[in-house]
Design a protein that fits this description.
The complex is a heterodimer of chains A (about 230) and B (about 350).
Chain A lengths: L1 H8 L17 H10 L1 H18 L23 H7 L5 H5 L5 E3 L11 E3 L11 H5 L18 E4 L15 H5 L7 E3 L5 E3 L9 H5 L8 E4 L13
Antiparallel strand pairs in A: 1-2, 3-6, 4-5
Chain B lengths: L1 H31 L3 H7 L4 H15 L4 E4 L2 E4 L1 H7 L3 E3 L3 E4 L2 E4 L1 H11 L4 H17 L2 H6 L1 H18 L12 H17 L4 H4 L1 H21 L14 H13 L4 H6 L1 H9 L5 E5 L10 H4 L20 H5 L5 E5 L2 H11 L4
Antiparallel strand pairs in B: 1-2, 3-4, 4-5, 6-7
The chains are: A alpha+beta (about 230), B mainly alpha (about 350).
Chain lengths: ~230, ~350
């Protein structure tokens, strides 16, 4: 109906009839063109690199927990490989039933769109659905929760109410999915983390009754700028 | 006309699907943590509440969604939870009923940056690549959320024409996008990080819509309702700029000349068997199809190259039924085009 109108209003001028350079189709041709237009190629590369430079910033993004490092979903590749292969598609976050996986916003620069977890707010339940959902293999599908290596929980003995003798607790021990392996109880039920068994799910950090600064926190070596995070 | 209605329907479904993904995940989350009924009650009459109710009605309404327990019909939790997982991802990479589909651009960029090709990537690429090999750039015309936005801007362009304002229609070289695709892959390989994914409009738009929908629920959880732009980030600015240039300077300039994804789809769809064909004996050379073509091609030449996205607008525009989809051997077509040598 309105097609006629359209035909009338966008009157076909001669130079608009079809296209002159629509036949760049074969691969060899494209390569030859790339060679001939090396300067343009350099400009485009510079523009893209500049764009990346602009997007990347030195400021720690929201969600990076300073020296504690970034906690990635269970099964994530090494940080370098992870950032290279992750296509920032949101599928891990969509598959996450406890909704612990969040995605960095554009202010995070190179991390934009990659998944992270803030255990203190919502910890990973080690359902391992994210690895199954990942379309790039950046998060590997794990079979057992013991294979997840997200970080290691550390107890701050000055803050822990059992360790410092100001109270009775046991929340972290109770909630730990690897109870008696990753966390055991010592004198007066004080929690002790075993770094070799702990996978860093952070359920203990979420459950910790010391609120402002948790007495047990997951430490990861990812995204820590300098020497601070050699611990894991 | 029917074809265009169908296409518009698919495009709108894609947008709704992108918006439905976060809603479904939140539904899943609330149901899994046994908060769903409380949230629906608390949020009654608000957008997130209504969304949850619609999803709930759909999940329970389908056969097998409910079971009888203690004299009343209740949700079959496990089944409903599994059902709510039918849709994940967005236009960049999606999983629909367990079938994984990934944009070929995401695949090649991930391969370039990570220098590895895991099986999951190949599996996800099968359907889009096969579809493109057969049908050409159909992602652009049927699925791309940016495509729908730009077609909306096209309507504004038409309105401007009616108001006797004539927006420019600047042309450029279609080779630019191939150059950008190649450059982007090199830069991605050098930086070991994806770059094209950040400038690819469907990926940006998909991510932004995802975050915006998620933010509606985030805000509701802290007791805030009503309209807010909080979920959108500054990445909407380039999207707006593309639309603005589209409106004033050049029709479908991004898709024709710049889009790296479009370039890859063009390369893949170069030898597609399904093409727009012209029955020359019926054509009256009225040229109605030429200005109608969003990609700026000339269907009357009967040589739709790699750029054609098989949207079928020319077929719907043709007054003489001279244009139609046809199937032909790509090799024969190639030889024919080589033989005639093309023009210029």
């Amino acid at each position: 109906m309105s097609r006629d109108e359209e035909a009338r209003v966008e009157e076909p001028r001669l130079e608009e009839m079809g296209d002159e350079d629509e036949r760049v189709t074969d691969r060899r041709e494209v390569l030859r063109l790339a060679g001939r237009h090396a300067a343009k190629f350099a400009v485009a590369a510079a523009a893209l690199l500049g764009f990346e430079g602009l997007r990347r910033s030195d400021e720690p993004p929201i969600g990076a927990r300073g020296d504690l490092g970034i906690v990635r979903p269970p099964g994530s590749l090494d940080e370098e490989d992870f950032l290279a292969s992750c296509m920032r598609c949101t599928r891990c976050a969509d598959a996450c039933e406890p909704q612990c996986i969040r995605l960095f916003g554009p202010e995070a620069g190179a991390l934009h769109g990659t998944p992270y977890i803030v255990p203190a707010e919502q910890a990973c339940t080690l359902c391992l659905a994210c690895g199954v959902a990942c379309p790039t293999g950046s998060i590997l599908p794990l079979e057992k929760m013991t294979q997840a290596a997200m970080g290691v929980a550390e107890v701050d003995e000055r803050l822990c109410v059992v360790h410092n003798g100001t109270g009775v607790c046991g929340a972290c021990f109770t909630v730990c999915p690897l109870r008696n392996r990753a966390i055991t109880q010592d004198y007066r039920d004080s929690p002790v983390v075993h770094a070799d068994a702990c996978v860093g799910c952070g359920l203990c950090e979420e459950a910790c009754i010391v609120r402002d600064r948790r007495a047990i926190r997951v430490v990861s070596s990812r995204g820590v700028a300098s020497v601070g995070g050699e611990e894991a | 006309m029917k074809l265009q209605l169908l296409r518009r329907g698919v495009q709108i479904l894609v947008i709704l699907g992108i918006l439905a993904v976060p809603a479904l995940t939140r539904y899943n989350n609330y149901l899994a943590s046994r908060e769903l009924d409380r949230q629906m009650e608390r949020w009654e009459g608000t957008l997130p509440g209504a969304t949850l109710e619609v999803i709930d009605a759909a999940m329970r309404g389908l056969p097998g969604g409910e079971m009888e327990r203690a004299g009343s019909w209740q949700r079959d939790r496990d089944r409903v939870l599994a059902r709510a997982a039918v849709l994940r991802g967005g236009a960049w990479s999606a999983e629909i009923a367990g079938v994984s589909m990934t944009d070929p651009l995401a695949v090649v960029e991930s391969v370039a940056a990570a220098r590895q090709l895991p099986w999951v990537l190949i599996v996800g690429a099968i359907i889009p690549v096969l579809a493109t090999l057969m049908l050409g750039r159909v992602f652009c015309s049927w699925i791309c959320p940016m495509g729908l936005l730009l077609e909306g801007v096209d309507k504004l362009r038409r309105l401007a024409h009616l108001l006797e304002i004539r927006p420019r229609n600047q042309r450029a070289s279609r080779r630019i996008k191939y150059g950008l695709l190649g450059t982007g892959l090199v830069v991605a390989a050098v930086l070991s990080a994806p770059v094209l994914g950040y400038i690819y409009p469907p990926a940006i738009l998909s991510r932004e819509l995802h975050d915006a929908a998620l933010t509606v629920f985030d805000r509701a959880e802290i007791g805030r309702f009503g309209v807010s732009l909080a979920g959108f980030s500054f990445m909407m600015i380039p999207i707006g700029l593309i639309a603005l240039v589209e409106l004033t300077v050049s029709r479908r300039w991004w898709c024709r000349y710049v889009c790296p994804g479009g370039a890859l789809y063009s390369l893949l769809g170069w030898a597609r068997p399904v093409r727009v064909r012209l029955a020359s004996e019926q054509c009256t050379a009225c040229a109605a199809c030429v200005p109608a073509c969003p990609m700026g091609l000339n269907p009357m030449k009967n040589a739709m190259g790699a750029e054609c996205d098989n949207c079928g607008v020319c077929i719907s525009t043709c007054n003489d039924d001279a244009l139609s989809y046809g199937i032909e051997s790509p090799l024969a077509d190639l030889l024919a085009r080589r033989g005639t040598g093309g023009t210029t």
